[in-house]
Amino acid sequence: GSYIWGRCVHNVRIECLWVDVTTQLGAKWAEFFTSLELHHGFNVNNRSHKWLLHYLFLPDINDELLFFTRTWNHHQIHIQGQRSRSPINFFYFDMLVHGIRGDFLAPHDFDDVILPQDLELFGVDWAALREPALADSQLQNNTITENTSSWIGRRGPPDNLNEVMVEPPEGDLTVEDIGQLHTFISPWLPMLDHESLTQRWAQALAFVLGLNPNF
Q1: Which of 48, 67, 88, 118 could form a disulfide with 169 if both were Cys (CB 3.0 to 4.6 A apart)?
Q2: Which range marks the domain in which residue 29 is found?
Q3: What sequence ranges are listed for the domain Integrase core (predicted)?
Q4: Is residue 53 part of a domain?
């Protein structure tokens, strides 16, 4: 595979995909976590609570993301004048035909010479950028001021990388405590409806507070 980076306007397709992920998956979990904060004792400023949230729900989120990924990779894309193909077919078959490609642009890649200033517009989907959902996504997720240099020829990591820091819990939960917690919440693990997920959180929080009131 390959990895390129640069200004977000050159990667509108992945921005559109992020909108789909948020709409179909992320928004549901965000609303659920907000309900836990408003009604069920989740304290966003308590790192132990955040650790517990990850422990309880991250496996389910990862499973849903994996299902979304597999579904997307195998869905059929209609191509005018050709047979339909899936993204995974594009990925593997085109590498077999054209070889693995990086960010080096050979002279024959373009019929005409492209000036550096023209590269700033290369690959920009202006119609997609006018879609309200995509514009909102870019505004929320690209808060860092971007420079005007093109991604062409850039190597190494970008200046700014996204990261999510999860501190260990402040309460002294032992390995045995976590094992007991897992056994205690196991009846709620297979159920993914809103009420069962809420009960999973409420019961787990009550259990760990019973082990350590300072959790």
Answers
A1: 48
A2: 8-43+58-167
A3: 2-96
A4: no
Can you tell me which residue has the tokens 């389910």?
Answer: 60
The two structure tokens encoding residue 159: 């200046």
Q: What is the pTM of this model?
A: 0.68
Provide the domain count of the chain: 2
Residue 49 lies in a domain: no
Residues 27 and 121 in one domain: yes
134 within 8 A of 128, measured Cβ to Cβ: yes
The answer to whether residues 156 and 182 belong to one domain is no
Strand partners, 209: none
User: 26 burial class (0-12, 13-18, 19+ CB within 10 angstroms)?
Assistant: middle
Start-to-end Cα distance in the chain = 44
